[in-house]
Amino acid sequence: MTQPQTVLLTGAAGGVGSFLRASLPGYGYDLRLSDIAPVPGAPEALTVDLRDAAAVREAVRGVDAVVHLGGLSLEDSFERILAANIEGLHHLYEAVRAENVRRVVFASSNHTVGFVPRPPDPEKAVLPVDTPLRPDTYYGLSKCFGESLASLYADKYGVETVSIRIGSCFATPLNTRMLETWLSPADAARLVHAALTAPDVRHTVVYGISANTRGWWDLAPARALGYRPQDDSESYAAQVLAEHGELVPGSPEHTYLGGPFTTVEPPR
After folding, report:
1. Of residues 29, 93, 138, 139, which has the active-site annotation?
2. What is the domain count for the chain?
3. Is 139 an annotated catalytic residue?
4. Is 120 part of any domain?
5. What is the residue-averaged pLDDT of the chain?
6. Which of 7, 43, 147, 184 is the most exposed place for a label (fewest CB within 10 A)?
7. pTM of the model as a whole
8. What end-to-end distance do the CA atoms of the chain give, in Å?
9. Following DSSP, what letter does each residue of 43-85 receive, concatenated?
10. How many CB atoms lie under 10 A from the CB of residue 245?
């Protein structure tokens, strides 16, 4: 695939969107920004509610590719998740199909596999992308749907997607768990660029983390796209551990990939 020139970046006002709208132009992309909220410093950005199919199609019209970060990025009621992350994503893929856009980069999440046990030793075991899905929240469930929808549109309509299961994308790791799940802003741009330009991806699922010494996700599928992570959370480890300490054995953070989102709630 030749490098797309005009890319729709949805969710551009969010945290990851803020990083990418600053970094992706350096890779040669002309960004069209959209969000349901105003995008700081970008008065030309489109205000688009994913629940509005017509508005979504108008935003997609004329672009070469879509980087889709839009929707709810935190756990919420099923009704709100359904409207924004499930029905809204369907509106996006229908718009992409109708406007003949051939590549989507979909922001999936590690919460698709949140209830998968955390391997005890990342040097001896890594988590493959074909691990059976075990979502830990309605949010994680919506990302499982998103990956399945992307697979359907690849097979049925020829819309190619790279689904990136983002770990924790912040300027620096904020807690001990993030020493394993951190994706630096610079590596996020490297990974999205690779996902936009790799040939023949059909539907490819990859994990989105940096080259973390403590990471235990299999980065081979991402590297196969051309991703070359440059950052490692270990450079922050001493500071993070001094502030937060090691993970407590038996705690959700120590037991499952989804961390605190895997707290089991009693029946009502």
Report:
1. 139
2. 1
3. yes
4. yes
5. 95
6. 43
7. 0.96
8. 51
9. TT-EE--TT-HHHHHHHHTT-SEEEE--S--S---HHHHIIII
10. 10
